[in-house]
Amino acid sequence: MVIKTAEFIESNTEIAKLPLATLPEYAFIGRSNVGKSSLINMLTNKSKLAKISQTPGKTQCINHFIINGNWYLVDLPGYGFAKTSKTNQHKWQLMIRHYLTKRENLQCVFVLIDSRLEPQRIDLDFINWLGEVGLSFVLVFTKADKQSKSRTQAQIDLFIKKMEETWDEIPPLFITSAQEGFGKEEILSFINGVNDGYVVSDIVEK
Ligand code: GDP
C-alpha cells in the first residue's frame, strides 16, 4: 500500500465522541517509549505526524488519524509509565478497555514490544487480556536496528515461548525499525489485506 495522505482528525477521552465507526480502524499501543510515535511516522511517511499525539493534553487521549481517506490509524496512550499516578493508570485502563471492547470498526490491535527487552509482565498481561475479550491483535517488535538480527530473533523466541505458556496460537508478528525503515511494507500490506475484506454494511446495520 502506498500512503498518499495521512491526517490528524481529533483527540478524544470520551468514547461517545469518537469519529463515526464507518472506516476500518487499527489501534497502536505499547509501553511508553517503545517507539510507537516513531513507528507511526515511519508507516505514514510523515516525520511529525505522531508528534501531535505527544503535545500537552493529548498524551492521555485516543488520537485518530485518517490514512488515504479510507482507514483510521489510532494512536493510543502508552502504558506502564512509572511517573503516572495510580489514579491516572486506573483512568487509562478504563478508557482504553472501554474503547477496545466497544469500537465496532476496530480490525486489529498492533501491540508494540521493544525487541531489546526480556518479555515484560505488563505486555504479557495486556496481551492476555486481549485474548480474554477476543480481540484480534498482532505483535510489532520495535527498534530492531539496535542489535544484531540473531539477538532480535532470540528475544522474539523468548517472548513466544512465554506466550506459549497460555496461548495455543501465536499471532502474526512484525520486526521493525523506524530508524532504518524496515517492517513497513509488511505492516502496510497486512492492513491492506484486512481493508480489502472489510464490509461497510456490517457496521452500518449495527
Ligand atoms: P513512544 O513513547 O512509544 O512514542 O516512543 P518514541 O517513538 O518517542 O521513541 C522513543 C525513543 O526511542 C526515541 O528516542 C526514539 O528516537 C527511539 N526509537 C524509536 N524507534 C526507534 C528505532 O526503530 N530505532 C532506534 N534506534 N531508535 C528508535
Contiguous low-pLDDT stretches (5 residues minimum) are none
Beginning-to-end CA distance, first to last residue: 29 Å
Strand content: 15-25%
Query: How are helices and strands ordered from N to C?
Result: EEHEEHEHEHEHH
Bound molecules: guanosine-5'-diphosphate
Oligomer: single chain
Count the DSSP helices.
Answer: 6
* Secondary structure tally: strands: 7
**What is the helix fraction of residues, given as a range?**
25-40%
Structural class: alpha/beta
Mean pLDDT: 92
What is the topology, as strand order, of the major beta sheet? 1-3-4-2-5-6-7
Profile the largest sheet. Answer: 7 strands, mixed
Shape, principal axes of CA atoms: globular
Q: If you had to describe this structure to a student in words, what would you say it looks like?
A:
It is a single chain. This protein is α/β, with parallel strands linked by helices and 206 residues long. The protein has six helices and seven strands, in the order E-E-H-E-E-H-E-H-E-H-E-H-H. It has helices at 36-44, 86-102, 121-133, 149-163, 184-196, 200-204; strands spanning 6-12, 25-30, 62-67, 71-75, 106-114, 137-142, 173-175. Strands 1-3-4-2-5-6-7 form a seven-stranded mixed sheet, with helices on both faces. A hairpin with a 3-residue loop joins strand 3 and strand 4 (71-75). It is globular. The two termini are 29 Å apart. Bound molecules: guanosine-5'-diphosphate. Guanosine-5'-diphosphate binds next to helix 1. Guanosine-5'-diphosphate is lined by residues 30, 32-38, 78, 142-143, 145-146, 177-179.
